[in-house]
Every structure is written in structure tokens, then in C-alpha cells.
């Protein structure tokens, strides 16, 4: 798998060719900070002064590093792919080591974001339930019909790991989160509940079958 | 609680076995019971009932449905129903027929009326599919994990069609959690039942 970096992005990474590994570590840190907090011009100014270049050059390099990170994760790049980048761009071994660490350490974070950027279906996040007896209705004054009322909490956003990383203990629900959430009240009776459990267990059992495991590992 | 019926309903019942002859009246009662218990489409039509006195037959049908529904609603027993109908001066053969029809089908009538009313969507069916991603617009490779698409639904009582109530996806872990949660509910219910 080749790293699909655009010519511009490769050009922006040229800065790395002339810097030592410590500076590259600093740039990688700046790139990760960009992912969580957005661009930080002051920091780029500071780095630009240090490298005696323009702020724009530093910012472009940081952005190109992010592109590298995303492309490497998206294409599931191997050590070998990174080595071919090194040959093409002529980075020193030290710099290359920093880059490959940068890519592998943040892969999990990027994978989470990439998955969440794809088509989102509702995920079941939580269930609250209550066992109830309906005692009377307009059409039947005396009854005792047993049911389980459940509240299903559904989210379209991905697992919250990344968001949690980005927000430091901010408990307030964002408006976009609210838009991506749905609560639903449903009910069922006990025999349907038992039936549901059986059917879902069959599904889970089936997913662990040799056939499905073989197919999944085959396409992975 | 004593049952109360409006004047038109009482009139509709009094017509049976008098203005409408006994045979037709019995057919009408049997046919009305079918309409009460089953979806409209599954009941074959009985044109005999409407050949003469179509207007009166309609009123009587309405009266029989009302009687069955109100008696079921109040959980009236056969003896109380008989006493009530005697007070209404219903023709004696028809009175027996009405009481017998009610008493023989009380359970079905009660179940029918249990289904009426306002409720949260009632899940009775689960469908599922297992999916594995191969490639996507945002990732060139498979995540190597399967996901479960779960569809909870019910069957419409009048036409038998399946209706989706909610649809969601789960990972394997989430599926296991869901099953555990449902089992926990089942366990709690059993505990309550044995108390």
C-alpha cells in the first residue's frame, strides 16, 4: 500500500528534511495538538522563528503531517511503506523513526475518527427498564397485564473515546450531540422478551461460527 | 359496576327476535361476534341479514357489539348480564343466545379488549443480520470486525404486516451486553413471579 500523499503535501514536508529528530518530535506534537485543539498560530510563529522560516511553512508542515497520519491509517500503511517514503524524500533515519512512532501511536485515535466519519447508523448505548402491571384501561376496567417498559438510548455518533479525549470533563451536551441522539420508549411482554433473548443469542452464536470467522479474516 | 346502555342500543337489542326473525337474529349475533373478534377482511359477508330491514339490522349489529364490549369492559358475569337483559325486555330466545355468546367467548373478548388502548410500541419480533465491512469511502481496509444490525418490530394486528419499531447496530461486545441486560430483566421478572 502506497502512501497517497499529494505533491503539495510532500513539498510541505520538506521542512522535515532539514531538521533534527527533536524538532520533528516537536512538529509531530504540534500536529496532534492541531487534531484536538485546532491550529495554534502563536506556536507556529515560535517554531518558525526557531527554524528561521515562515509561520506558513510550519503550519503547512503540521498539516501535511496530519495528512500523512490519516493516509497511513486509512491505507493501513506498513513499516515498508514508510521506508519507501524515506527513500523518496530522503529523510534521515532518526527523523523516520520519529515519524513511524508518530503514525503508529496515533493510529488508534485516527481509526476511531475515520470510522465515525463514515455512514452512521444508530447504536444502542443504554437500556433502562421497568417491570409494570397495567391495571385498567378505558376498554377493560379490570385487568392485570404484565409488561416490561424499556427506554432505549440510541446514538449515531461513534464511541465517545475521542470526544472524551478532546473534552476535559465538560459534561454539557453539545447541540450536535443532541441531534445525533434518540431516546425511544418501547414495551414488551415476558414471552416476547424470552424470544428476543433466544434470537439474539443465535445471532451472536452465528457470528462466532468458523464460516464467518474465516470470511472476516479473509477480507481483513 | 352495573352496565348502562343508551336507548338506541336497547332498541337494537329489542328488535332481535321481534322485528327481525329468530333465524336471522341468530345469524346476526354470530356474525357480529366474528366482526368483533377478527380483522374485518377475514369475515365472510352474510347478505341474508340485510335482505329485509337493512336499517334495523345495522342498528342491531351496533347494539350487539356495544353490549359485548360494555359487558367485557366491566367484567360482567353471565348471571348479571342475564338479569340486565331481562330488565330490558329482550325476546327470551335472543336473550339466551346473547348470554351464551358472551359467556362462551368471554376470554377472546377480553384478550381483544386488552389490545385496545394507548401503549408504547410493543415489541414481539426481532430480526438481525451480521455485516462485515470490506472497504469504505473513509477507510481502504476492513476493520476486521463484524457488526450486528438489529431490527425490533411487531406484527400489525389488523393486517398481519410487520412494522419496524427501532433499528440499531451493535458490535459483538455490545451485542453481548444487550443480551446480558435482557437476561437481567428476565431474571428480575422471575424473581418477582416467585415471590
Order of helices and strands of chain B: HHHHHHHEEEEH
Radius of gyration of chain B (Å): 26 Å
Order of helices and strands of chain A: HHHHHHHEEHHEHH
The amount of helix of chain B comes to 40-55%
> How large is the count of helical segments of chain B?
8
Structural class of chain B: alpha+beta
Distance between the termini of chain B: 31 Å
Structure summary, number of beta strands of chain A = 3
Number of helices of chain A: 11
Rounded mean pLDDT score of chain B: 90
What spatial order of strands do you see in the largest sheet of chain B?
2-3-4
Approximately what portion of the residues of chain A adopt beta-strand conformation?
5-15%
Pfam families (chain B): COMM_domain
Domain COMM (chain B): 122-193
Family (chain B): Belongs to the COMM domain-containing protein 3 family.
Organism (chain B): Bactrocera dorsalis (Oriental fruit fly)
Structural commentary:
Chain A: Pfam families: COMM_domain, COMM_HN. The complex is a heterodimer of chains A (220) and B (195). Chain A is α+β, with helices and mostly antiparallel strands. Chain A contains 11 helices and 3 strands. Chain A folds into 3 domains: 111 residues, no CATH class; 70 residues, no CATH class; 30 residues. Chain A has a 3-stranded antiparallel β-sheet with strand order 1-2-3. The model of chain A has no long low-confidence stretch (mean pLDDT 82). Chain B has 2 domains: 108 residues, no CATH class; 70 residues, no CATH class. Chain B is of the alpha+beta class and 195 residues long. Chain B starts with 6 loop residues before the first helix and ends with a helix. The interface between A and B is large, with 58 and 58 residues. Strand 3 of chain A pairs parallel with strand 1 of chain B, so a sheet runs across the interface.
Amino acid at each position: 500500500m502506497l502512501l497517497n500523499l499529494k505533491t503539495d503535501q510532500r513539498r510541505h514536508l520538506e521542512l522535515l528534511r532539514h531538521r533534527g529528530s527533536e524538532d520533528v518530535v516537536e512538529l509531530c506534537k504540534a500536529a496532534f495538538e492541531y487534531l484536538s485543539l485546532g491550529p495554534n498560530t502563536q506556536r507556529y510563529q515560535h517554531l518558525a522563528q526557531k527554524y528561521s522560516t515562515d509561520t506558513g511553512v510550519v503550519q503547512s508542515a503540521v498539516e501535511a503531517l496530519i495528512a500523512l497520519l490519516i493516509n497511513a491509517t486509512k491505507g493501513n500503511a506498513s513499516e515498508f511503506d514508510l521506508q519507501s517514503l524515506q527513500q523518496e524524500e530522503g529523510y534521515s533515519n532518526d527523523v523516520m523513526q520519529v515519524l513511524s512512532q508518530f503514525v503508529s501511536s496515533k493510529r488508534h485515535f485516527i481509526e476511531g475518527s475515520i470510522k465515525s466519519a463514515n455512514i452512521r447508523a444508530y447504536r444502542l448505548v443504554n437500556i433502562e427498564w421497568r417491570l409494570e402491571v397495567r391495571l385498567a384501561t378505558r376498554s377493560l376496567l379490570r385487568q392485570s397485564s404484565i409488561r416490561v417498559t424499556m427506554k432505549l438510548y440510541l446514538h449515531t455518533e461513534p464511541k465517545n473515546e475521542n470526544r472524551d479525549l478532546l473534552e476535559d470533563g465538560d459534561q454539557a451536551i453539545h447541540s450536535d450531540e443532541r441531534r445525533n441522539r434518540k431516546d425511544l420508549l418501547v414495551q414488551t411482554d415476558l414471552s416476547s422478551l424470552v424470544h428476543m433473548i433466544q434470537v439474539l443469542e443465535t445471532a451472536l452464536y452465528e457470528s462466532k461460527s468458523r464460516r464467518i470467522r474465516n470470511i472476516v479474516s479473509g477480507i481483513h | 359496576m352495573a352496565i348502562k346502555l343508551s336507548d338506541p342500543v336497547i332498541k337494537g337489542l329489542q328488535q332481535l327476535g321481534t322485528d327481525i326473525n329468530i333465524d336471522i337474529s341468530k345469524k346476526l349475533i354470530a356474525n357480529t361476534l366474528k366482526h368483533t373478534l377478527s380483522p374485518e377482511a377475514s369475515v365472510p359477508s352474510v347478505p341474508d341479514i340485510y335482505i329485509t330491514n337493512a336499517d334495523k339490522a345495522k342498528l342491531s349489529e351496533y347494539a350487539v357489539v356495544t353490549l359485548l364490549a360494555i359487558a367485557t369492559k366491566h367484567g360482567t358475569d353471565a348471571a348479571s348480564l342475564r338479569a340486565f337483559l331481562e330488565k330490558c325486555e329482550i325476546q327470551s330466545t335472543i336473550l339466551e343466545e346473547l348470554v351464551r355468546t358472551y359467556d362462551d367467548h368471554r376470554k377472546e373478548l377480553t384478550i381483544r379488549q386488552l389490545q385496545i388502548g394507548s401503549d408504547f410500541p410493543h415489541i414481539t419480533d426481532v430480526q438481525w443480520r451480521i455485516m462485515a465491512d470490506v472497504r469504505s469511502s473513509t477507510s481502504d481496509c476492513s476493520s476486521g470486525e463484524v457488526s450486528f444490525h438489529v431490527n425490533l418490530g411487531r406484527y400489525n394486528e389488523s393486517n398481519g404486516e410487520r412494522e419496524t419499531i427501532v433499528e440499531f447496530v451493535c458490535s459483538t461486545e455490545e451485542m453481548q451486553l444487550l443480551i446480558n441486560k435482557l437476561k437481567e430483566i428476565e431474571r428480575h421478572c422471575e424473581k418477582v413471579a416467585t415471590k
